[in-house]
Amino acid sequence: MNVPIRRLTFFCMVLFGALLLNANYLQGLQAEDLREHRHNQRQTARQFDAARGAIIVGNEQIAYSEPTEDEDAAYAYQRHYDNSEEYAHITGFYSLYNATGIEGEQNSMLNGSDSRLAVSNFMDTLTGEESQGASVELTLNPEAQETAFDALRSTGKNGAAVALDPNTGAVLASASVPSYDANPLADHDPSKVEETYQELEEAEDKPLLNRAFNQRYPPGSTFKVVTAAAALEDGETPDSTQPAPETYQLPAGGTMPNHGGINGPCNGGDPDPLRHSIEISCNTSMAHWAVDLGEEKMAAQAEAFGFDSGEFDIPLTVSESSYPRGLNGSQLAQTGIGQFDVSATPLQMAMIAGGIANGGDVMRPYLVEKVESSDFTQLESANPEVFSEAVSSSTADGLTEMMVQVTEGDEASGTQGAIPGMQVAGKTGTAETGQGSTHNWFISFAPANDPQVAVAVVLENGNSSGGELAAPVAKPIMEAVIEQ
Amino acid sequence: MNAPNTGSATLPPVKRRNAEFVMLLLALAIALGSFAASGLALNESIPPGLFGYGLTFGGLALATHVTLRFIAPYADPLILPCAIFLNGLGLSMVWRLNQGDEGDHAGVGTQLIWAAIGMVLCLAILFFIKEPRVLQRYPYITLLVAVVLLASPMTPVLGQEILGARRWIALGPFQLQPSEFAKIALVIFLSGYLVMKRDVLSLASKDLKVGRFKVLDLPRMRDMAPMVVAWCLAILILVVTKDLGTSLLMFGTFLAMIYVATQRSSWVIIGLTMFMAGATVAWAIFTHVQQRVTIWLNPFDDEIYNSVGGSYQLVQGLFALAEGGVLGTGLGQGQPDTIFAADSDFIMVSFGEELGLTGIMAIVVVIFLLCERGLRVAMASREMFVKMMAAGISFVIAFQVFITMGGVTRVIPLTGMTTPFLSAGGSSLMASWIMLGLLLRMSDNARRPAPQAIQDEGTTQVISR
């Protein structure tokens, strides 16, 4: 009977061996990952006891940790957010449960655990000083941000506005309405945090959603810029024409009428030049352009501006904008005016404006200007790079010329985007949602001859026109950037 | 005296009681030290109960040692120190984990009482059961006891369902977990029964052939009854009490013991196949089984993590282990108390956090040492029944530790069960000490030198003990 007993002993040894191996794996190999896991509140809780770095905009700290005064406070530091509603979608929040936005993406810098801070932390240990996390300075322009947020809010609609520096890709303003206050989420009382979060999460108008980066809308007529870009890249000129009847009998059935201020054909029944189609935002001629160019060229141009290239991080994650495929003639015609299944984030549309402003090169958007340790050593600084070469510089010039007409031409559709004393290039958009209402868009950049700012504005279910509702929001944002 | 141990031979008849004494002092020092360390870390003072605790626990440990010197002098010298080491650490941890609650001694007071009762039971077994074979006498009554114990939580008045498992019965102010005792009764029954049926179970066979080659020699259909009954019992426990752990433990023990009795791997293969089939069907039918498996496979999935009865507890345990890392946070300096059931099912996690990988490995090795000594007793014993029982008890301890620790560290799906000697809970602790008493008694009998023939009595030989 001893042979089976010996085998049983061996089996027990295997069982215990498995336990020991697994313990080594968990507590040795995997320990680091588990400690950093986003569900791990121990980490978060411990960091509430440490001096976390600030998030800076301009010269102001918009998110910072202060020592708690109350002796009985649960943790040593309390996180504060100034003007929180204005910045909440960018800063995110740092709660007992999770961290979002910059707080989440730059966590290792802010909490000082990044390896680049190891030396500074070690010096602090030697000198007996309390280690501090690094501070993160954002690219946002405080005036532009405030203007964007206030202007959006004054419309009474939900929506978003993004302003980029077309030459570098720096995000100068990014506002999303409705917003929320991050302060109660940084509270030390877990039940209060949970309650607030629950409320925000369940709210019908989704205040937690960053519409500027993560909501996709049909871009409507603002997408005509892409159609026009494809045409120019294909060798056409602003004077090339397409039929522009009152109603376009679509190739695969259905009809498309002209909209907005245009009642009737766009050019008195004659074929309409491209520049005029953009200026007055003619549907039928632009749809003809799309059909003429074909799906391949349309898709390629959209991709060149950043559509269908996956999510990307700036470092906040930006959702993918998309141009549909496998279209029949009618659908292709509709994509030419930014309808059917074309969808774009406000940031994507700002990138289009920015790319044209920058002579055809779309710059990669970024939010973090630099990261500095508490002893002012620069750990990281922004390095502008080209995202894509969307169009040639001559195409960009042509597009600019046409877009300027949108704000100041004889039959301009976006006059409210014009700024006295300079030329503004813009494009309006009124996108049908499919539920009987419209989203109102305006994309623009200024000054047209030396662009300093590119903007995209969208207002959900504005049920007005891009020129009426969105352009007045874009204008003060551009002014706020240029005036400085 | 140092005869080579050839497995089939008996262990050398050495007492080594002094060695035991020294190791016992070491184990006590670790136990009391860990208690003091937790107190210092938590309240910045030596716990006021240290003296009383030391006196009770240390006194009982030494009393057991002294008793062994008299009534079981040849008992294995390693078994008692291992148990004291484990129980002592368990007491410190249970005390430390219940510090946040009301009072200084919340939790540990009762736990110490249970430990004391356990040790007294252990002494009683050593005292009253001089020959383990007396337990062989009534196998079917033992079986009845085991079944009644297992079924008792099902009774409407006594039985209690706590957190989705019917595992407890209420006896006045106490809650008892009868399955802890049932497993001992089951081992005793199986030892007796399998020894009786050993020949028929191990020899009668039918060859399973593929072509001309024998792949497996199968038992006859009519000998399948014990296997079928054990299987039914395991599935019944699983279905009715929703107690995954006990079901697995009972059936695993049955397979181990039938293998030891017959040395036939076909029994194990048949048993495992049947259990797998049963478990798969149970998985398909019962949501609580499905949930356990889902949690095991994807504990970090957001939906599973956030759902009620989801993987939150398991994941928190894994975080605690990671927090402990290699060296641990130090006793009283971690936060294992934030985990639900930190002092019972999750006690290994609590040790993992505060004593680190180092501590958890030491504990696992000591438990293995304890089981290995038990299995050594089985090998050294001369009687079939004792061999079976020693092997069975050792395996029960080892397998239970595997199921609990494997569950909280995600080697296998999590099932609620206590860790022998370590976890808070009277039933578990008493059962552990009963098993220890049996092991000590059996080891004394196994290691005792064979009765010497007295040669100068002429032609008549008198056997003396």
From TrEMBL, chain A:
One Gene Ontology biological process: cell wall organization
Penicillin binding protein A dimerisation domain mapped to chain residues: 52-136
InterPro entries on file: Beta-lactam/transpept, Beta-lactam/transpept-like, PBPA_dimer, PCN-bd_Tpept
Record Pfam families: PBP_dimer_2 (PF21922), Transpeptidase (PF00905)
Coiled coil region boundaries: none
Domain Penicillin-binding protein transpeptidase: start-end pairs: 159-479
Source taxon at top rank: Bacteria
Sequence intervals crossing the membrane: none
GO MF annotation, one: peptidoglycan L,D-transpeptidase activity
GO cellular component annotations of the record: plasma membrane
Stated name of the protein: Penicillin-binding protein 2
Automatic annotation (TrEMBL), chain B:
Cellular component terms per the entry's GO annotation: cell division site; plasma membrane
UniProt-listed Pfam families: FTSW_RODA_SPOVE
One GO MF term: lipid-linked peptidoglycan transporter activity
Location (main, coarse): membrane
GO process terms (BP): cell division; regulation of cell shape
PANTHER family xrefs: CELL CYCLE PROTEIN, PEPTIDOGLYCAN GLYCOSYLTRANSFERASE RODA
Keyword line: Cell shape, Membrane, Transmembrane, Transmembrane helix
Topological category with respect to the lipid bilayer: Multi-pass membrane protein
Source organism per UniProt: Halostreptopolyspora alba
Subcellular location: Membrane
Transmembrane feature ranges: 21-38, 50-71, 78-97, 109-129, 141-159, 179-196, 267-286, 355-372, 384-408, 420-440
Protein name: FtsW/RodA/SpoVE family cell cycle protein
